[in-house]
Amino acid sequence: MALSLAALKSAHSKRSVFIYGVFVFILAIWRYAAHGITSSPSILPNSPQSPSLTPPDVFDPYKCSSLLTTGSWLNPSADPAKPPSNWQPDGCLYHSYNPSEASYCLQNQQVLFAGDSTVRQVFWETVKSVDPTIVESAERHADIRYQKNGIDIQFLWDPYLNSTALNLIESCRTTRHSQPNAYIVLGGGLWFARYLGDNGATMWKSNTDRIVDGVKACAGFYNVPFFLPVSVPDWENLDEARSTTILKPEVTYMNSYLVWLSQQKNIIVPTSLNEMMTLGAYDSSGIHSVDSVAKAKAGLLLNVRCNQIVQEHKGYPYDKTCCYTYPGPTMTQFAILVFSLVIIPAAYIKSSGLLSSPRMWSEGATGSAFVTACFIFATTLTYCYVADRTSLFIKASKQFWAEDFAIMTGLSLLLGVVTLRKSDSEQGFMGRDQSNEWKGWMQIMVLIYHITGASKVLPIYKYIRVMVAAYLFMTGYGHTIYFYKKNDFGLKRVANVLVRLNMLSCALAYSMNTDYLFYYFAPLSSFWFMTVYFTMKVQAEKNKDLKFLSAKIGISVLIMKLFLSVPGIMEVLWWVLSRVFFVSWDLREWRFRVLLDMYIVYIGMFGAIASIKIAELKLLQHPRWPMTRMLVLAGSALALVAYHIMQVHWNSKADYNARHPYISFLPILGFLFLRNATHTLRNTYSTAFAWVGGCSLETFTLQFHIWMAADTRGLLQVVGSKHRTLNLIILTPLFLLVSNLTSEATGKLTSALVNG
């Protein structure tokens, strides 16, 4: 970030970015291959009903083996009374299923559980995943069945796996079933160890072999068979009766034999379930899981069986990356990739000369500059696709730690302080240097907010909402000043702004198979730009009349409030868009985002008019200006304090969002006046923050795919899920440099397309 804009424009810097990008890709490929060499072989069955579940090679690209055999808690417990949370398999995103997703996957199918009380726990959590209102029955040693809306989930109490379960499995060859089987879950072992003495392990092995052979014989029906590992007890907290009969060597032997059996007979043994049993994961028995951990176990089985099915049905966000095969490119994506990987590079090489030529990266000629911009833009799209639509880069879950948020914020602040410089030219109120600095540090905070998963922390959420509002304040302020002073309402101006704002977002919507509103900041800025444009354009010849202009802005507020709030108006517009242009945007989400910051745009417009009139009337030279200035600064400080006091009293996002449109101006105006309090403050800025501010649109948009992953739901990583800090150190410079180069390229492409 400390690199100067001039340095980034140089041929040397572009070559450096290219070389660093190649290094990151080589690292990703090396990690991909090394992981494959050391990973365990696939233990998924070769099922005709679930071909996507079968890794074709040793590289485990679908992360099935990782899901089934590895993992750790991102939020481990330090207190036995507090369960761990947020399970993270190595290299993929574990998905927590909601009822609609689980029901879609299991609809018109049966799920069979058979075994002891540890299996029963997983059964109940599976039922709750489709029906959270269900109440567990008090029956302990009995069969249980849940049937609703075409879903049939059955548990057979059979701790010795020698009676009901075996008979039912063997009946698959003679009985005609009305529903297909989604998956079968078997498990047991602790009853053998506790009640059958020295013969327990031998009898367990015999019964296990019989039931596994029975499942294998029914491969056409039980296509996804799970055999749960024997639960490893909390040895130090077992009661005396259990601790003297359940012995560690027996449990170890049983689990080792299951792993061997899985490799010989294609039975799925999710050994990672025992990895979940850490401090805080056990209930008082020392054997069973607490409910939240049992839910994670049931969720893991759903991830294996359902991720491919639900993701294909749902589309983006691609947040189910364990045991999942990314789809091949659509025709549109294929065309974009061919254009990006073949046509543009060929044109670029032709315009630049040979790779060894001194003209490489040169922009001396206009044609070369345009082709270079196309090459950079196309490379960015390709990078996004490879990073977030293939398994080359790994994905990991987010986890908020206050320490991480504080350290990243502190380092960013330090960077801003050490890069403070005097402006090269005299800066007026909210000058360009200061505006870029403001956008820059706010963008950095938004990035930290997203990467650390801080959206769950209400106080941070509130201040981030203010920062988004500040961006829109600057939208209203900057465009109003332009239209007032330039009186330029030509289509070329409109095209320049809209193309510049939307080129990247529109291209990503096609190349990533998302939609335009997903990258919401560009649509939001475009919407409010057009609002400012039409407000200022109507009878523009009267804009010098303060009363008329103020009334016109006030009328615009009322019109937009009615347009956005009255039921039916936007619904008709959305219906037309869906019928004529075949788009299916989320109206509820769009209305929420527009209304949340509606008034701050108009406050920015009024602020721009006030700034212009103060200069026109030379109020800074008025004898009472010093006193007025002191009162404004005192009021600004009070506004910051007042906002902080008020926001503390709202204890939910819904409560705060209801008040945000009416109070967000307090910290924004308060900060703005204090930031411009003196000549020195106005003419001093952080070059690092201003550098980020210069490409803030690109950093906001590209973070979705090349800094985070799974369409912002997870983290992009290159060297393994356990090395989060190292991944951040490697990927952040590339993300920022690509964002900056893309910003430059987009500007040049906009100029070429609009201005000729």
UniProtKB/TrEMBL annotation:
InterPro entries: Cas1_AcylTrans_dom. The chain crosses the membrane at residues 17-34, 331-349, 369-388, 400-420, 441-458, 464-482, 518-536, 557-576, 596-615, 627-646, 658-676, 688-706, 726-743. The keyword Glycoprotein applies. Its main location: membrane. One of its GO terms (molecular function) is transferase activity. It is found in: Membrane. It is a multi-pass membrane protein. Keywords: Glycoprotein, Membrane, Transferase, Transmembrane, Transmembrane helix. Residues 317-754 form the Cas1p 10 TM acyl transferase domain. Signal peptide: none annotated. It comes from the Eukaryota. Belongs to the PC-esterase family. CASD1 subfamily. This is 10 TM acyl transferase domain found in Cas1p-domain-containing protein. It comes from Myxozyma melibiosi.
